[in-house]
Amino acid sequence: MASVLLAVFVNGKICKDPNMISVDDFFFPGHTCDQLPRLNTLGISLVRIDYAPYGLNPPHTHPRATEVLVVVEGTLYVGFVTSNPADPNVKNKIFTKTLYPGDVFVFPEGLIHFQFNVGKTNAVVFAGLSSQNTGVITIANAVFRSDQPINLDVLTKAFQVDANIIKYLQAQFWWNID
């Protein structure tokens, strides 16, 4: 009779045999979230982000996660914007702060947020997210870099600007932050 290898798959990954787990399965010196397989199924994500001087993590949102940012080195200007207040007479509100080593900042789930290194030196942060499947939508990419451009009339009306400005923005290089 042939032997059968049984494996448990969770979120597309093979789980390690519980009898073979050691402390080293939970220790990750100098690695990023893609290299942290043991976070699979724990409902969290973790990432290290390195910023060059004046580096930017552009406005984006995580539709399925709150983000907690911890500054290890450098100086970051960070913020998030509220969205669509119930009262139509109230504008969206921006919350910003300049962060220094040891500071912690929380970006609520689903709200557009950003981080900008305002220092002349590199900055390093760790970001913990409350989901293993956070999702990310980079605002400029979504609006101005779709493979079939959004109709010019739609964008000129939505942004209340001249069509030439929209064409200019659509011609720019918009990077992914994934």
From TrEMBL:
GO terms for molecular function: manganese ion binding. Residues 24-167 form the Cupin type-1 domain. SMART domains: Cupin_1. Keywords: Apoplast, Disulfide bond, Manganese, Metal-binding, Secreted. GO terms for cellular component: apoplast. Signal peptide: none annotated. InterPro entries: Cupin_1, Germin, Germin_Mn-BS, RmlC-like_jellyroll, RmlC_Cupin_sf. SUPFAM superfamilies: RmlC-like cupins. Oxalate binds at residues 57, 62, 67. Mn(2+) binds at residues 60, 62, 67, 113. PROSITE patterns: GERMIN. It is found in: Secreted, Extracellular space, Apoplast. Belongs to the germin family. This is Germin-like protein. It comes from Forsythia ovata.
